[in-house]
Design a protein that fits this description.
single chain, alpha+beta, Thrombin, subunit H, 2 domains, three-stranded antiparallel β-sheet, 2 helices, 10 strands, 15% helix
Length: 138
C-alpha cells in the first residue's frame, strides 16, 4: 500500500522497500495486485512509486493473469542501488544559499541522480538535486 503523501510516511515507505532490496541476495521479486479489497470495497492499486527509480537495465516487469486477476511482478537483480549508498543521512543539518538552514528528511537516487528532501523552517519541504543544490553540511 502506498503511504499517505506526507513527509514521514513517504520516508518510511522508501525505507521499507530498500530494506527488502538490501536483504535480497541474488534476485528480488516484487508482486502487486491491480485491485485489492479493503474494508469490503474494491480499490485500484498502483505499484510502489519508487519502482520507477530502479535502473531499467536491472529490472523487468512480468504481467500475467492469475485466475482472471491481473498481477504484476517486478524482478530486480542485486545491483540495484540501495538506500545505504546515499550521501547525506536523515537528520543532517545543511545550509542552502537562499533558504538557509534546513534538516535532511530523505536522500535517494532517482534515475541516476541523487535527490535530497530538506525541510526549511520558512519555506517548508524542498526536493533538490544534490549536484545542483549547493548544500553545505553544518
Amino acid at each position: 500500500f502506498q503511504a499517505i503523501k506526507n513527509d514521514n510516511s513517504l520516508i518510511e515507505e522508501r525505507k521499507l522497500l530498500y530494506t527488502c532490496m538490501n536483504r535480497a541476495e541474488d534476485v528480488l521479486i516484487l508482486t502487486t495486485a491491480k485491485r485489492r479489497r479493503l474494508y469490503a470495497t474494491l480499490q485500484s492499486q498502483e505499484p510502489s512509486r519508487f519502482i520507477k527509480e530502479f535502473p531499467d537495465s536491472s529490472c523487468r516487469i512480468i504481467q500475467r493473469n492469475a485466475r482472471k486477476r491481473k498481477t504484476m511482478t517486478f524482478m530486480c537483480d542485486s545491483t540495484t542501488p540501495s538506500y545505504a549508498t546515499n550521501k547525506i543521512p536523515h537528520g543532517t543539518k545543511v545550509k542552502h544559499p537562499i533558504w538557509g538552514i534546513g534538516v535532511v528528511r530523505d536522500c535517494y537516487i532517482d534515475k541516476g541522480d541523487t535527490k535530497v528532501m530538506v525541510k526549511f523552517p520558512k519555506v517548508g519541504l524542498k526536493k533538490l538535486s544534490l549536484k545542483f543544490a549547493n548544500l553545505e553540511r553544518i
